[in-house]
Specification:
alpha+beta; 6-stranded antiparallel β-sheet; disordered C terminus
Length: 126
């Protein structure tokens, strides 16, 4: 059980349009300029793009694998403990993150900006 980062790298780089970048001093991966995964500074945790509802469900189902820190609460990211996840689950998660990032950066799609001085909060929170 468990996934090595090199296996993550090999899989991610097999996806169409992916480039490896540095993000916060660690390896990360982008598609169409949108970051969708990166190795956390501890070397054993992968930060992966994911919607809030799916993230909450995954954390509730397998908290030994998936988690977030306070920093990520209001962002669409999940943290994954590489030594605890199976490769099949990891590839499914990464493929979903890749699709999400690719869809966000499709040509002609505009990102909704925030008003100056406003911080984006997690939907459904006060």
């Amino acid at each position: 059980m468990g996934v090595k980062f090199e296996a993550v790298r090999k899989f991610v780089l097999s996806l169409d349009g992916v480039e490896e970048v540095r993000s916060y001093g660690t390896p990360g991966f982008k598609v169409r300029g949108a970051l969708f995964a990166r190795l956390k500074e501890d070397g054993g945790t992968l930060v992966v793009r994911m919607g809030f509802d799916a993230r909450d469900e995954m954390i509730a189902t397998a908290p030994e694998i998936y988690f977030v820190t306070d920093h990520y609460l209001n962002y669409k990211w999940i943290l994954v403990r590489l030594p605890k996840i199976e490769m099949d689950a990891m590839t499914d998660l990464l493929r979903g993150a890749w699709r999400m990032a690719e869809a966000e950066k499709k040509p002609g799609k505009k990102r909704q900006g925030l008003a100056v001085g406003k911080k984006a909060g997690r939907r459904g929170t006060t």
